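Hi, here's the filled form for the chain we discussed.

Project: internal
Contact: R.S.
Residues: 99
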Amino acid sequence: MFHPKVSGNRIKPGGITNGWKLTPVGKILRLGDLPLNMALSPSKKFLAVTNNGQSDQMVQIIDAIQMQVLDSVVMGKSWLGLAFSDDEKFLYASGGHDN
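And the returned structure, exactly as it came back:
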């Protein structure tokens, strides 16, 4: 459902630049800033997410059934590479560098 939310030249909270408001469907799970990649475990029980924004860069582990964050591991620099091992004992995450 779209709702206009513009007052003059200022966008009100919840609005987007064209003046509409997007109403999400489903459950919202708060992640870190700039989540760039997700990997689903082979059993589909766990979801790993990289957060690569300006704040702490991290990998979050999520219970994919309950949709709850189980753990967050801060990395010095992270990037796109993300994969579970076949037995789910390991999660591989690539590092990044300063540009």
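Let me know if anything looks off before we file it.
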